[in-house]
Write the structure tokens for this entry.
Amino acid sequence: MKRIRKVLIANRGEIAVRIIRSCKELDVSTVAVFSEVDRLSPHVLMADEAYPIGPAPSSRSYLNMEKIIAVALESGADAVHPGYGFLAENPTFARKVSEAGLIFIGPSAETIRMMGSKTESRKIMQEAGVPVVPGTTRAIKRVAEAQAIIESIGGYPVMLKAAAGGGGKGMRIVRKAEELPRALEAGRSEALKAFGDDTIYIEKLVESPKHIEIQILADHEGHIVHLWERDCSIQRRHQKVIEECPSAILPPEVRARMGATAVQAARACGYVNAGTVEFLVDENLNFYFLEMNTRLQVEHPVTEMVLGIDLVKLQIQVAEGSPLPLRQEAIQARGHAIECRIYAEDPFHNFAPSTGRIQYLKHPEGPGVRLDSGIASHSEITMYYDPLMAKLITWGSNRREAIARMIRALKEYQVHGVRTTIPFCLAVLQHPDFQEGRFNTGFVDACWPDCLPEVSGDEAVDAVAAALRYLQEQQKVYQDGHFVSRERPPQPSAWKIRGLKEMMRER
Amino acid sequence: MKRIRKVLIANRGEIAVRIIRSCKELDVSTVAVFSEVDRLSPHVLMADEAYPIGPAPSSRSYLNMEKIIAVALESGADAVHPGYGFLAENPTFARKVSEAGLIFIGPSAETIRMMGSKTESRKIMQEAGVPVVPGTTRAIKRVAEAQAIIESIGGYPVMLKAAAGGGGKGMRIVRKAEELPRALEAGRSEALKAFGDDTIYIEKLVESPKHIEIQILADHEGHIVHLWERDCSIQRRHQKVIEECPSAILPPEVRARMGATAVQAARACGYVNAGTVEFLVDENLNFYFLEMNTRLQVEHPVTEMVLGIDLVKLQIQVAEGSPLPLRQEAIQARGHAIECRIYAEDPFHNFAPSTGRIQYLKHPEGPGVRLDSGIASHSEITMYYDPLMAKLITWGSNRREAIARMIRALKEYQVHGVRTTIPFCLAVLQHPDFQEGRFNTGFVDACWPDCLPEVSGDEAVDAVAAALRYLQEQQKVYQDGHFVSRERPPQPSAWKIRGLKEMMRER
Amino acid sequence: MVYYIRKGEAFFPVEVEDRNGILWIRVGETLFQLDPRRVANEQYSVLVNGKSFFVELVHPAPEMVFKIDQQEYALTVLNERQKIEREIFGRTERVHGHGEVRAPMPGLILRVEVQVGEEVTIGQPLLIMEAMKMENEIRAPIDGVVKEIVVEPHQAVEKEDLLIRLE
Amino acid sequence: MVYYIRKGEAFFPVEVEDRNGILWIRVGETLFQLDPRRVANEQYSVLVNGKSFFVELVHPAPEMVFKIDQQEYALTVLNERQKIEREIFGRTERVHGHGEVRAPMPGLILRVEVQVGEEVTIGQPLLIMEAMKMENEIRAPIDGVVKEIVVEPHQAVEKEDLLIRLE
């Protein structure tokens, strides 16, 4: 068993910061890597060491395996933590890290490869007795071929998916034969761009499903535990935005069955370290294997808060070869946790990415609030990377308290400079259907932005507007010169106004 | 039972903010009050309503009972939450609030009065069979009188205490007869200034004690629970600075006995709402009643994090007349929590208050970190109020993790503009005796500032200094004009340096 | 001091009287007492009859945008002079970019989904651009008619580049 | 560029060479490679041979004070001219307040515990003042002799008022 003393974090943003924090608490040294635009990013400022790895585009920096491994070796790191995204589910990277004599904090390259192919993983799960959505495990090239498969699984509606997929890219719902050709083409083109692989496969569409996933953790001795579930049904463009633990609707008996199935799935692919088995759950609480994510999930904090564990620390311990310190019987949930992803996006304009410099930033705090952020008040949000700025997580002794706390915390959150998903999250959290647990993956499409409350023309707001206008003109307290450049305070001279009024009378 | 819909918070700073947060989560409206210098303080910005109550000195604002009650009535508040300090333990205020038809969120005026007199409370506890420190319950005026009492309880060392006391004011340890006259005079003068009452009493000094307190909660139906303990032994000038839950050294059997004794104490004074029974614990784990605090404690968050409860919400529910939703058997602790109080004080100069404007503020975040702050990045720390800026609380699955997390979080904490107790807290947290649980109330006096690690003259630090100096001179990136005003970048002309060098040669 | 707030096509007067820093503001029949203070750069605290509003100013007057409790309000607030100018000359100070559809971020135009002269309704997709590895629909900010299409498919654009002009 | 860092009474040279924004700095026998950047107002990120230092500058040169990981460092860093001036004229730029004991906050002087001419050692209580309802000891910042006592008991003082001068 090799003790890990120094970890290179092959990532950026909030997840790099989050991993650094756990390492510091374990007294493990941290090595950050950064692209040219990230020299002053929080992960660079917080790590013990930091090395440049190339220009801004991730293909030339955060995806540059050789460079990252070279930095790890030169800095004397024992291990590499990939975070999520970038190289986290790249089997070649996992293999190269191991071949360089470093510990890859995650499962084996072979496990990553198997689970990375959506078609191969479906095959493995089917063989292991894990329920999967009816569909094909073959790559589809032509429309006719697709049509035949669709008939064999009982017809429309179906879902097209990218075999190398993730994050909703390449996914298309097809409800009628007429839609198939265009959907197939669009899906293949998007998949090619996103993953360099245009392989598409077909599944029966599970209507109005919930997306519920099970966190698992496995050590090198074959000891596997499941760590409750996360409900990630609140998605926009097939991407998760709000997640919670536990699910609002799962009876203990179904939870136990899903947990056992997830362990079965992990065992079927020889899983070691932290992973997540994603399921679709239909209205009758039947569940179907969707995919296995062979890494830490974005939404892992809700599990941590409810179970009282630190998944990154456990990942490091397992990677060292330590046996899991958790026994299934001893794992106890307490209360409820919710996560809102705070993206630099404009929710009122179709969630378009919003780039710019952060002018001001004030994070929510206080009881039951956790914030994992990847930006600081000086940060620039660029187009180069995922626009996730931070994750806001609240814990409550029950779901109602967690929701009330999240609403309180979202209202405390202040960001100037870019638009964010905060108003969107607030609208969802305040929605009666969300509060009652009546939602599935179609929730956002069905309700946003129609669910926004009407803004009433409040007279008090008019008074506030007039007061601000007055302050601007009278007090001239424009310390940062910001207003001055946008608007010259008007200084109407008496004669000019009189002149104008006379002109008006003449008209 | 009257539902509380609107609460006036008769306080300021972090505790006002903390109470506002719980009210918002309960959907209870909040009314803030503020003195002239607090117009832009966070509690004013966060409350639903805010009203001025007078000039900066607290005697003319936050202690102005009539004004505060008038604001409560005019704003339509149902209840008043006093926080801690100011009017929180003033029986007259509690009575006046009730007489105005408002709910006082705390125990009855009579309970506050009884427990507020340290001598009377000792008497009540003695009668109820609660162990107290040997000593007197009579007021001491003259030295001869004191001398006689000291002989009757077995001689020196003894502790002089203010009967109206709290916060260490008026307290004096006396080890020899010669020290008695001066100590008595100083104690009385300090007590008079702090409480308007110079009554002093005498207790046998418990040598090297730990300060351990039990949180209790009682409803109107006489149902009382105890909520584990807090160890508050890390004190400077008899004021707590670092607290934790649970204690590092208390066996479950002693905890159970202290808890039962605390319930007994609460019952003896007819206690309703949240309160704290403070004990001194000697080296053999004998415990003695010290005093009862009839309000929310500064350090209540460590209890909240370990027990998974919100004491302010429970206070409001109990004040409404609801029965306690907690049963003693069902109360479960999880993990360990530590609080560091972040004061605007200079720990290197005898903890002298440090006033000034906050230039920059960045709070620690991430897993297991809670921050309750009363200031913002624009705040001015004045001499008018207690210099407590914020409380940093960390939770860990065990004491070791909570400590490691606190060290990590303290290092993330950035405050410019005033000096803080952060370096002090860091030194305590890193001290082997603290980490091993070997400490009592004498810890700070014994080890600070001697326990500070020697700063070695690191060459890398010299290089950093030279680099900053170089940046200053070369890049002239002084965006805020701050450096410019302090130092003109030197522009030595060649002839001047030559001239100076020649002068040197001539010497 | 009188300001004019636009509601629909009309402007309503709002009277402001400064009594030693406390503002008495009349909106319609209602008289409010306000204590507005600047907290930091573009943040204000305004007490309105004791109600505490924390206001983040996103865009200054006359086309003001501000946030209270994450709710965004957009109001046109004119002073006397601006009101008269608008009445005479029409809306001289055009809302920036109202009919101008600009790139929200740098990226690549994939498809243009409308034609010059076509009537569009608010929210209707105008073109698809790729940025941050996603296909993003750019939608019409107003009801109107496509006057000009400035870009074409496969063209790279910078942030704020004009894409389409509506009228 | 050469700077001089004081260690005790002596000054040690530190050489700085700027190679396109990366600084090569020699301290004694050791050569460091530094990438210093300003993050915000008085915050800097400095990479020293890859080690990441987050530096908060509390006081600028020449009497620099900065914090790294909550550890405060105070160093005197002179440039060529300042070094020469000091060698000629002695310490012309006196450390502000070194022998001057000033009020750390507004308050009331209760007692003065030393007399003019008395020798005091660092940390010895000089006087007691009341502020924030607490009695605060004001202690000697250096070893020295009391040269002047500026205040007397019951006198109110403002922050930064001179109280006692040591030598």
